[in-house]
Each structure stands twice: as structure tokens, then as C-alpha cells.
Amino acid sequence: MNRAHRRQTIHPADSRRGLTLIELLVVIGLIGLLVGLMLPMTRMSRESARRANCQSNMRNVSMAVHGYSSQNGEAIPVGIYKSSRYSAQSVILIQLELGISNRLFGTFTSTADASSNATSKKFPIYNCPSDNPSGTYASPGGGKYARSNFVFCFGADTLDPSSQQDRGIFRIDQTASFADMAIDGTSNTVMVSEIISGKTATDPSGAWGYGEAGSCGYTHKNLPQSGAGILPTLAHSATDFSNALATASSMHPGLVNVMYADMHGSQIATSIDPAIWRAMATVGGGEKYQAP
User: Fold this and answer.
1) Residue 11 placed within a domain
2) Exposure on the CB side of residue 226, measured as CA atoms within 13 A
3) Which residues, in sequence order, are bridge partners of residue 144?
4) Is residue 20 part of a domain?
5) Number of domains observed in the structure of the chain
6) For residues 234 and 245, what is the distance between their CA atoms, to the nearest angstrom?
7) Residue 72 domain-assigned?
8) Which residues, at least 6 apart from 10, have a Cβ–Cβ distance to it below 8 Å?
9) Higher model confidence: residue 43 or residue 164?
10) Predicted confidence band at 229 (pLDDT cuts at 50, 70, 90)?
11) Fewest Cβ atoms nearer than 10 Å: which of 19, 122, 174, 232?
12) pLDDT tens, position by position, 204-213
């Protein structure tokens, strides 16, 4: 074996060289660029999954309303009971297969404020994972209410509008039926949307067991909001809801989820035409529009 070959065999590391500083910086830069490109895609994927989960929960809530109607002479649940402040969300717990919690209300002869053992419970089916509501709301009467995100549509104006044309599916102290939608059609009438849950002790938004604007019901008087909610306008009194209103809102960028009375869902842009948004909320307005 000659001397040159012996040197190469004995000292193979002599022929290697490491990365230069410039090459190392280029590699690090490329890795950083790839990570920067992947992070927004990961966030978008996660938000898409959360929106899908949100719509699935909303559809189940809508199915519960239909189930209640089928079992109660085709009557849609009363949206808010004035005297007791019970909400439609409270009375459909059996249809949501939450019968154990439903029994905590007894016979619904008391008041919502006296039913904190039931209303203080958080139900995942009433929640949107993009918001993941937490905490509780304490009503003026001392009731304790868990947060949620799904609210029922009371129409295009206030929760108790003066005009019959502005009425939605849900009513104050009144039932409705899906037959009432013969004019506008169930595929053109919104039944459920979202609201960002209250983040302060005085904001009732999303308190599902409490019969108040923003807690269990909303209207289409204002355009939907994204990223931040609007404080609801609470009822004048226990018997006067003519001023009460709340606005749909969500943590989804630029949109809110809605579920129509025929149980098809849609994602509505916050930039929607105000006239179309109002028309979507009424059961007998007779408006002509293409449902988003």
C-alpha cells in the first residue's frame, strides 16, 4: 500500500469539511421561512375544524327544537317566559338527551333564578370551540348561569317587536310553529346563530338558562360582528321586552354561523347586505332574496 493511500485510509476525516457560517445562516433562514409559511396554514386548519364543530353542535340544537315541536303539537318552544325568565334552551334539554339536567328544573313552576343547580351547568353542545365560553353570570335576582354561544332568533327588530312582519321563529310568552313559515319558507328563515359569551360579570351574553336579550335570544336589527361582541340592550323590565335586542357575533374571522329552520347551515359574512340580513330573520315578511 503506498503512503498516500495509507494516509487516506488512516485519516478519512481529513477529507471532510463542515458548513461555513454563511451556509449555516442560509439553512436557518430557510427553516424559519418554512415554519413561517406553515404556522398560518396550521391556524387556518384548526379554525376550520372549530367552525365545523360549531356548526355540528348548532345543527343538533336545531334538531332538538324540531324534536320538541313534534312532541308538543307542532309548537316551537316559547323563546322567553316573562314571569319566570326560563328560556327555550332550558326546555329542550330532554331532546338534547340531557334529561338528568332537565329534571333539576323540576316542573318549571319556579323561576330561572331559583334553578341555579341546573342553569349553572355548562353544556358543550351549546358551545362553540372558537370561543370556549367560561365563567358564570349572576342575574339581578341572584341566579347563577353558565355561559354558552348559541342564541335563538327573535326576528328583525327587538325581542318583542311592534310589527308582526318583524317577528322571528321565537317569541316572548308565545309559541309559533313551522307552519307559520309558509310565506318565507323554512329554508329562508334563520333559527339559531352565535354570540360571543360575556367576559364580565355584568354581561349576560350567552347565559343560556336566562330569559334575556343576549343570554338566549338575539335579533337581526344590527349586522353580525366578528372578533368582539356588542353588549345587549336589556329589557326595560320583567314585563317589557319591547326595547331588548342583541347582535349575532362570533370569534370566527369575518363571519358567523347560522342554522336555518330546515336545518341547513351557512356561514354569513359580517359584510352582508343589511336588508338581506333582516329578511333572513322573519317568518312572514314576504321578502324576496336568495338565501346565503
Assistant:
1) no
2) 12
3) 138
4) no
5) 1
6) 7
7) yes
8) none
9) 164
10) confident
11) 19
12) 999 999 999 9
